[in-house]
Every structure is written in structure tokens, then in C-alpha cells.
Write the C-alpha cells for this entry.
Amino acid sequence: MNTATIQDGTIQSLPENHLEHFLNYLRAAGYAERTLRKKRSVTTALARWMKRRRITTDDLDASRIDAFVVRSPGRGKDHVNRERAVIRLFLRYLRSAAGLKGPPMQKNVSAGDGLLRLYGDYLRKDRGLAENSLRVYVPFIRALLASQSTPMGGTFAEGFNTMAIQDFILSQSRNRSAEYIRLLAIALRSFFRFLFLAGQMTHDLSPSVPRVCKYRQSLPPAFLSPDEVERVLAATDRSTPGGRRDHAILLLLARLGLRAGEIVSLKLDDIRWRAGEIIISGKGGVVDRLPLLSDIGEALAAYLRRDRGVSASRQVFLRTWAPHIGLTGPAAVGHIVRQALVRAEVRRSGRGAAHLFRHGLATKMIRQGASMSEIAEVLRHRSQTTTAIYAQVSFEALRSVALPWPEIGGAR
């Protein structure tokens, strides 16, 4: 690789082998040759377009990428989006693997942006929250900072007061569900507590955020019965690489009651074959050891030996389509579960498809006589208050043995 041309930063001076390195990189990630030919066509066209306009990679920002993908009239939206995705992938490769510089950073970063980054670090390091929780909290706070018109310097002392907080909550609550408002209030209390602890405010405004009551649902949580679980497992086609991967994932959900996020974050080193256990990184950074049951071990071994292939990723479960990297998040597991339910003709509505197995495991245990503390231990609940929702299943089960209500005269 010619280092001089990389330091020069102009894509037109890059020799042909840089494109070949990029294509080899994608080929190693599992892209098909047909796909690689399409990406070569896009990157070659980009190089010629930049050469004609004397544009360097340092100048290639979002606006110039947009100018390139719409260079010809009448181009379809799907075609434009595909080209834009190829260019972003190519530039990411050049800047990470080849060392090319990206477009200059914005010189004026608002105090709000910096504060948002500090808040995210606080949630990760000090509070031990998972990335999924950050995806819930941070958008609320970003909207809060965007609504703040008061200039922010080194502190936030003059930025907010009780009335400003209440006005913001009211503005965000219109036509919103009770659950949305509850999460908004939780995020705001967390943020103002952080501001006080970080010295950004001289007094704690978190008590100024009103609490939103959430009444417990009167119905027990949706779950899969033992028969439905076995139907879902049996309906998974284990003759294909994707089917073997999905079967292993479904077994982890059904037998151990894992959360979707725990399956996504499962690493190769977390499977202790000799010890017969799996290391699970749960909520709040808690690490648990669970037994590596025989059917789970067989499913994992079949997938790892035959289908996973070589990857730089240490995650156990990878995408079946290129690039062969780890699953992107809990939503990917939810998608796998929903497809499995359709195959087995099991109909369930609502969110949290992966949690149906977890609820099913708890329901099965309680109907077999397990105590709340035993269920809490298996599901790794930090509070038995969370486990209490399954007590409703016991009341439902009592209906089958309850005596009929006596009528007048003893007759029915």
C-alpha cells in the first residue's frame, strides 16, 4: 500500500490496489462476488467524479456525497440510497484501515453536546446501565437540551428551574402514552441528579420532576406454554446454517430464560465447555454463571463448528448475510423469535417477543410449585417485586380447582 498517496488524502491519486484492498476486505467479511462487482462500480465512479472536481477525502462530507449520488437526474430513490451506503462503507474502510483523514470536525461544539456525552458516560460507568437503556434516556435529554435557549457556559445553574422543567414535560406529553411520559420523567430525574453530582448545578432539581403513576396490569404477562415452546423449537429448520443458529438462540431463550440483549452480547469466551457453564453479563454489569445444558451445548457446538465461520467478531451469534458480524441488537433476536412463531403458527401480539420464552419459563416453574424466590433466582431478578407479576398466574391456576359458588337452597 502506497503510504504517500494515503497521506496526500486525494482519492484520485489512490492506485487501483486500494480499491482491491477494499474489495478483499469485503470478500473476507462474506460479501458475494456479485455484490462486490456492484460496489466496485460505485467506488470507481466516485473516484472519477472526485478527480474531475478536485475533491479530496478531507473535503468529502455529507453534502458532497449527496451531490454525487444525485449527479444524474431521474435516479430512483433505492439506487441513490444503495450508492450512499457503499460510499460510506468505502470511506469508513479508508479512514480506519488505510489511515485517511475524514472531513474536519466542527469547531464549535455546543456545551449541550459535550454535556450529553458526559451524561452518557455517567450512565455507563457510574450507573452501570446497558446501551439499550441509554437509547431510551439519551433522546429525552437531547430534546431537553435542544429546547434550552439560555446560553450555557461552564455550569448549568441558570439554565433550568422548576417551571421550565414542568413546561418541557407538558410540551412533550401531548398525545403521548402514559408509559412514554413515565420514561420521560425517569430520564429527567436521572439527568438533573447527574448535573448536581457533576457540579453543573448548585442544587438538585431532580425532586422537581413529577412522578408518573403506573398501575400494575391486572392480567398476567403473555407467555408461551410448554407445548408451544416445543412446537416453536420443532418448527425451526436445522438443515440450514441460519436454522441451526436460530435453534441455538431459541434454546437459550426457552431453557435458560435469557434476555435478548444477553444473547446478543454473548461472547465465545463466555462458553466454558469444560466447566459446563455459560457466563452471562446481565443488567447493571452483573455477571452470572448458568449451566450449559446438554441440548444447548449440542446446538451451540453444531452452529460453531459448521456455520459460524471465521470472523473478527467475538460474539457467538453472527449475521447470516454479509458482513458476517455480530447481531446488531436485541431487535435482531426479536425478529428471529417472531419468524419462529409464524412458522409454528403460534400467535402472540404485542412487544417483547423474546420475553415470551422468559415468561413461559417462569409460568412453568410456578405451576410446578416453585417459590417466588426460586423464580427470581433463575430469572436473575435483583428485586422480587419484579417477580411478583407471576403471582397472578397462581390466582389464574386456582380457577380450575375452585368450588362453585353455592346457591340458595343448596341447588344450582
Summary: Residues 1-15, 104-109, 150-155 have pLDDT under 50 and may be disordered. The chain has three domains: 3-96, 111-208, 226-398.
